[in-house]
């Protein structure tokens, strides 16, 4: 090999290892995956707003609204770890395809029930359970897909891109949901169903063979139990993940009521759309900002993000001005990706691919386990306490948790 050829090869290899958006977007299967995420996220944004608004229209009950939101979390806890083990054992592509198809069918069923004036509150709860059950398989499969398709040196950028896409879509979704809901509830649900089917088509064209491989080892109860333990042990072996589990569970418990408080805090669907858009504008800013914090330990963006969120929610307790409310919600949005992207990037890099599905599901189950209690408790307590009191309580409780995190030496020293 000539000296010039050797130099060209070194340059090429160096360029391939460069952490750049150009190298990331050059991966065709990644483009298909994020295209599916784009349309799916747009539909999810419309669906989430439509589901909770449908319950508010049908009943006006904060308690039943909390039941809908809790119903979305319960399947994660029940099926989360199981789905992770199954996903790790093969054909992640098929799990994503089946999840998209069945979620689309569930939402189409809601539309048919609405057209025939048969839609009842318990049906919304049932739909929430079913869609979330399929989510329990889709999400770990997508996590493994990203890990498989994207090299480690591009992982933080990939997570930032995914969060940015989620955010850009989120800017449009609330406004789109508001328009669709003003037209009709069935139109909003039909839009969501269509996005599931479109996502199906994008994933169908992903060619990475590793995503369709199946484990040759036969699954039995003994091996299944071993796989479950492996997922938990993998998390425990990573010091910062082990040290943060309890704090993350408490944070999820603290922030869960926000999903109920926002719809109740506004007077109409237009205001709700504006608040949601403001929150996602903040997330967009935060998703971009975290790219300038890569040299800091992960605890820095996490704590910064939590302080922004808690400070904004606490301030909401002291104002009724809608412009100020919108600005505070945007500030809270900035903090959200600083926490989530830092944690997800750390998780994706530290955990091996072969146990990523079950480890991700185990982590998700641990984090989501506190949400149903928090949501149901919120629905019951809102009868006796004001929404402003809840925002203030979230800020105070969260501040204590953040202080505990900062004082923990394991978390403070983690890179």
Description:
The protein is mainly α. The chain has a single domain, classed as Up-down Bundle (Growth Hormone, Chain: A). Helices cover 82% and strands 0% of the residues. The chain contains 18 helices and no strands. Helix 10 packs antiparallel against helix 17. The longest helix has 32 residues.
What pattern of helices and strands is seen along the backbone? HHHHHHHHHHHHHHHHHH
Poorly predicted residue ranges: 1-16
Helix content: over 70%
Going by CATH, the architecture would be Up-down Bundle
Q: What is the 3D form?
A: globular
Largest sheet: none
Give me the CATH fold name.
Growth Hormone, Chain: A
CATH class, anyone? Answer: Mainly Alpha
Number of helices: 18
According to CATH, the homologous superfamily is MFS general substrate transporter like domains
Topology:
Blueprint: H1 3-16, H2 21-25, H3 28-59, H4 62-88, H5 92-115, H6 121-149, H7 155-183, H8 185-204, H9 221-237, H10 239-255, H11 258-265, H12 269-289, H13 299-316, H14 322-350, H15 356-368, H16 371-381, H17 387-407, H18 409-413
Helix pairs in contact: 3-4, 3-6, 3-7, 3-8, 4-6, 4-9, 4-15, 4-16, 5-6, 5-8, 6-15, 7-8, 7-12, 7-14, 9-15, 10-15, 10-17, 12-14, 13-14, 13-17
Transmembrane segments: 32-55, 61-87, 94-116, 122-141, 161-183, 189-206, 245-266, 272-292, 299-316, 322-344, 365-384, 390-411
Main location: membrane
Domain Major facilitator superfamily (MFS) profile: 29-415
In short:
The chain is mainly alpha-helical and 415 residues long.
What key attributes describe this structure?
415 residues, mainly alpha, Growth Hormone, Chain: A, 18 helices, 82% helix, 0% strand, globular, disordered N terminus, membrane
């Amino acid at each position: 090999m000539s000296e010039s050829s050797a130099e060209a090869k070194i340059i090429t290899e160096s360029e391939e290892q460069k952490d750049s958006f150009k190298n990331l977007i050059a991966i065709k299967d990644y483009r298909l995956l994020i295209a599916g995420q784009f349309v799916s996220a747009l539909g999810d944004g419309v669906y989430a707003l439509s589901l909770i608004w449908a319950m508010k229209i049908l009943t006006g009950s904060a308690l039943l609204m909390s039941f809908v939101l809790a119903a979305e979390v319960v399947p994660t806890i029940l099926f989360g770890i199981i789905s992770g083990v199954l996903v790790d054992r093969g054909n992640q592509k098929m799990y994503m395809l089946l999840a998209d198809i069945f979620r689309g069918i569930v939402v189409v069923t809601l539309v048919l029930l609405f057209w025939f004036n048969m839609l009842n509150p318990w049906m919304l709860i049932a739909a929430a359970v079913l869609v979330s059950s399929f989510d329990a398989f889709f999400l770990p499969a997508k996590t493994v897909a990203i890990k498989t398709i994207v090299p480690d040196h591009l992982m933080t950028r990939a997570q930032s891109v995914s969060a940015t896409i989620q955010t850009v879509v989120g800017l449009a979704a609330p406004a789109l949901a508001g328009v669709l809901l003003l037209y009709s509830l069935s139109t909003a649900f039909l839009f969501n169903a269509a996005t599931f089917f479109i996502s199906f088509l994008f994933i169908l064209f992903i060619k990475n063979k590793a995503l369709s491989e199946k484990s040759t080892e036969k699954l039995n109860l003994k091996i299944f139990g071993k796989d479950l333990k492996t997922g938990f042990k993998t998390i425990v072996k990573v010091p910062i993940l082990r040290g943060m589990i309890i704090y993350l569970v408490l944070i999820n418990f603290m922030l869960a009521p926000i999903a109920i408080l926002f719809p109740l805090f506004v007077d109409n669907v237009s205001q709700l759309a504006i608040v949601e858009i403001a929150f996602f504008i903040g997330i967009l800013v935060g998703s971009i900002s975290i790219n300038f914090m890569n040299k800091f330990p992960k605890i820095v963006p996490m704590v910064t993000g939590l302080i922004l969120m808690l400070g904004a929610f606490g301030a909401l307790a002291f104002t009724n001005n809608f412009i100020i409310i919108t600005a505070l919600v945007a500030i809270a949005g900035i903090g959200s990706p600083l926490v989530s992207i830092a944690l997800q990037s750390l998780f994706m890099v530290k955990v091996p691919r072969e146990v990523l599905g079950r480890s991700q599901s185990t982590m998700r189950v641990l984090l989501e386990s506190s949400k149903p209690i928090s949501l149901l408790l919120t629905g019951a307590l809102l009868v006796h306490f004001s929404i402003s009191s809840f925002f203030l309580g979230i800020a105070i409780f969260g501040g204590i948790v953040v202080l505990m995190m900062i004082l923990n030496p394991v978390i403070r020293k983690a890179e």
